[in-house]
Write a structure and sequence with these properties.
Blueprint lengths: L1 H17 L6 H5 L3 H25 L38 E4 L14 H9 L6 E4 L4
Antiparallel strand pairs: 1-2
Bound molecules: FE2/S2 (inorganic) cluster.
Length: 136
Amino acid sequence: METVATLVKVTLPSYLANLTIPTSVDELASISGPDWVQLIIFMLTIAIIFYSLIRLFHPSVDKGPKGKGHPINPSIRKECPKVVDVLDVEDLNKEKVSYCRCWKSKKFPLCDGSHNAHNEETGDNVGPVVIRKKIN
Ligand code: FES
């Protein structure tokens, strides 16, 4: 604790007091090489702290369970590295079939209308892909 107190009360104020911060364009042009390095390191530190705070608190930077971002698929066939369904149009025995694109259907890959609750809950606008077949 004492180390942190010394850092905040002594080291940081001393560092900031010795930092060359130009107040005009003329002063900017007259800064020496070592002062430029010190100023750039200071500005990078501030930028990294600011960026880290935004990453930490901004809702769009939500992390999924593996820390790679928020997954679209919450529960369907998670044991598979990739969920792929193939449809042969010749096998389509109905006039139309709806395939889920929201990953919420209990009958996945078919749509069961769960997208309506999802849209209501989140303000999203997802819906199925509908494949129609002309039956003569
Ligand atoms: S249930 Fe997913 S698109 Fe309809």
